[in-house]
Automatic annotation (TrEMBL):
Pfam families: Acyl-CoA_dh_1, Acyl-CoA_dh_M, Acyl-CoA_dh_N. Keywords: FAD, Flavoprotein, Oxidoreductase. Its cofactor is FAD. It comes from Pontibacillus salicampi. InterPro entries: Acyl-CoA_DH_CS, Acyl-CoA_Oxase/DH_mid-dom, Acyl-CoA_Oxase/DH_mid-dom_sf, AcylCo_DH-like_C, AcylCo_DH/oxidase_C, AcylCoA_DH/ox_N, AcylCoA_DH/ox_N_sf, AcylCoA_DH/oxidase_NM_dom_sf. Residues 6-118 form the Acyl-CoA dehydrogenase/oxidase N-terminal domain. Residues 229-377 form the Acyl-CoA dehydrogenase/oxidase C-terminal domain. Belongs to the acyl-CoA dehydrogenase family. This is Acyl-CoA dehydrogenase. Residues 122-217 form the Acyl-CoA oxidase/dehydrogenase middle domain. It comes from the Bacteria.
Amino acid sequence: MNLQFTEEQEMMRKMVRDFAQNEVAPVVEKMDREDYFPRDLVTKMGELGLMGIPIPESYGGSGMDFTSYIIAIHELSKVSASLGVILSVHTSVGTNPILYFGTEEQKQYYLPKLASGEYVGAFALTEPNAGSDAGSLKTKAEKRGDSYILNGSKVYITNGEVADTFIVFARTDRDAGNKGLSAFIVEQGTPGLEIGKKENKMGMNGSGTVALSFDACEVPASNLLGAEGEGFKIAMANLNIGRIGIAAQSLGIAEAALEHAVDYAKGREQFGKSIAQYQGISFKLADMATAVEGSKLLTYHAANLRENNKECGKESSMAKKFASETAMKAATEAIQVFGGYGYTEDYPVERFFRDAKVCEIYEGTNEIQRIVIGKQLFGER
Ligand code: CAA
């Protein structure tokens, strides 16, 4: 593939870089320390058109290509991985399911609100006993007249603290395994939906990860997304795309760790010369740079397939797995290059380390990515 970006894509990169440097960088440490949702930044992202980059203009979005969206997550995550995941979850799994599977009425009503940033979107799949085995989830949805009544609970819902809409997966058929799941658009404020405990996480502070409970929560039947029984398919299709966003987020963290480590190594002198001149350090940086480049190629390759409406499940899993492992390794090595300073909160590399870890876990653990890749290798999918 040709890693040449168009003029529009480069304009997107510059716009997001400027926004990240001028508006996000000054508050990134505060957001990490105080773990608050950056409402004003998200509002600004809405004004810049970032909350609906790949959503068609006819539904209030920016109508740009998928690669531009991935560029935005990549650039934003170099400064704040938390904003990267807020944007990725909002778009890939909070908004796209409506674009791809919604009725015309659902699209007309919800997409302009989500694409403008007036609404923040979230995705509610995981349950206390259904993580990797998403198809075994137990939240029930029973049809009653013109409504569905939802009962059950969800955990680890990114953006859930502030979300206006949740794409919720629930069981409409007890005996049909993963073919018995359906998807619903559930609005914040619906009676019976309660926003539960906010997690105290190792990193990714600001993105507000919460539990949800549904207690006789009545959702209009018109908010069923797709057909009954299509829920698992909808979840998998959107996770395939979402994982490219997590790859881009991981790439941003890895690149930032590399840049900080290179700068520090050039400026730090020991035994009479800069530590960059020791192979012990320069080899580390060379390995980091190589893995960052590999992550970039995999991520933009998966984005390119998606953009051209080609099958991208295997490639998005490869990109997510490789880029998140690279982010973790790059952050670990960056701390090593910084030595004792890297272990303190005075430098951002310890935040990169804390933020990187979850990229190996969410939107499917890296073990699950290997299952997805393996099944394709053996022709099982
Ligand atoms: N793409 C397309 N289709 C897929 C697919 C994929 N990646 N994975 C499975 N499917 C399809 C299969 O082709 C199969 O279709 P048919 O029935 O038509 O043949 C069907 O789904 C069932 O497949 P499996 O038998 O392989 O299903 P399984 O129950 O064994 O599980 C799994 C498959 C890959 C392990 C899946 O459960 C999975 O991806 N689990 C991880 C869940 C996950 O990613 N959770 C993330 C939560 S959201 C999040 O983290 C967001 C956030 O907050 C940041």
